């Protein structure tokens, strides 16, 4: 039974992963319904967060759900919001057993979904592939418990840690295979974020390309004074794909109005000295509902997030090229006096991507 539960839960986790970046402010949950050893229904949280995975899977299963086992990557919700509770939907469908990976820390649900199921006579098994399930929806839990989204910081550099030559030339340090992985990561996050320097130097699109028809992430620029060209690609496409500009309280009113006129959303953040306070930045994004943010630099923004201990995952690409000390570093000054003060991460994965090396790190 244990191996069978893990196998079906692994299937549900795959379904949930497919919705990452597409369901905020809700988590991306997978559900598989099994009867007599055969899958009769499966689903994941739909675009925008509704309907929930259980409802999708139950609709597919129909009458076959009666007496079946439902495998869900997160505790079924127990409260009535915009839709009825999923725990009640499972009860009404006559499911005999529910296997869940983890409980929901949302106080409206936490433990109550399981209680509803047990009170209805349904057998409940929990903590099946819990670590994997928590990692997939860590951003949702961070938003619920700490009010901020999960931050993945992407660094792509030469093997001596440079992101550009002294003159600013940076295209392309890594190869096309690495860039495709970056587009896939953008698609798995709610938003892509850069600093004003990167927006000015690269004039980026920050969209997902080469992946077919997929929902586009929100594009965020962090710029205290909104010193971003009004003729940039971001400005020209703000009505097509959302652009949010996180600025300081001292940004000029006429600049704010100009960007709003182009279709951008303006988000005012507190300052920490002369820079936008990274904690205020992420709290504002969490308040809006973001759960996963993919930060692509530049160096000053990376240093700000690292210095405040707000980077949850590092995605580092190293190319087989040397630029030298005169090149631009991938992380700005951290002001460290001792090695013990340096942020440390745990190595999660290493693999070759084309001619580049990708290593993934998470916080200790």
TrEMBL record:
Q: Is this entry keyworded Oxidoreductase?
A: yes
Cofactor note from UniProt? Answer: Binds 1 zinc ion.
In which residues is substrate bound?
Answer: 170, 186, 206, 209, 296
Binding of Zn(2+), residues: 52, 77, 86
Q: What does this protein do?
A: Converts 2,5-diamino-6-(ribosylamino)-4(3h)-pyrimidinone 5'-phosphate into 5-amino-6-(ribosylamino)-2,4(1h,3h)-pyrimidinedione 5'-phosphate.
GO BP annotation list: riboflavin biosynthetic process
Pinpoint the CMP/dCMP-type deaminase domain residues.
Answer: 3-125
Active site positions, chain numbering = 54
Reaction(s) this enzyme catalyzes, per UniProt: 5-amino-6-(5-phospho-D-ribitylamino)uracil + NADP(+) = 5-amino-6-(5-phospho-D-ribosylamino)uracil + NADPH + H(+); 2,5-diamino-6-hydroxy-4-(5-phosphoribosylamino)-pyrimidine + H2O + H(+) = 5-amino-6-(5-phospho-D-ribosylamino)uracil + NH4(+)
Q: In which pathway does it act?
A: Cofactor biosynthesis; riboflavin biosynthesis; 5-amino-6-(D-ribitylamino)uracil from GTP: step 2/4; Cofactor biosynthesis; riboflavin biosynthesis; 5-amino-6-(D-ribitylamino)uracil from GTP: step 3/4
- List where the protein spans the membrane: none
- What's this protein's name? Riboflavin biosynthesis protein RibD
Q: Which UniProt keywords apply?
A: Hydrolase, Metal-binding, Multifunctional enzyme, NADP, Oxidoreductase, Riboflavin biosynthesis, Zinc
- Coiled coil ranges: none
- In short, the EC number is 3.5.4.26, 1.1.1.193
Question: Which positions are annotated as binding NADP(+)?
Answer: 156, 172, 198, 202, 298-304
Family assignment?
In the N-terminal section; belongs to the cytidine and deoxycytidylate deaminase family.
| InterPro entries xref list | CMP_dCMP_dom (IPR002125), Cytidine_deaminase-like (IPR016193), DHFR-like_dom_sf (IPR024072), Eubact_RibD (IPR004794), RibD_C (IPR011549), RibDG_C (IPR002734), Riboflavin_Biosynth_HTPR (IPR050765)
Q: What cofactor does this one take?
A: Zn(2+)
Q: What one GO molecular function would you report for this record?
A: NADP binding
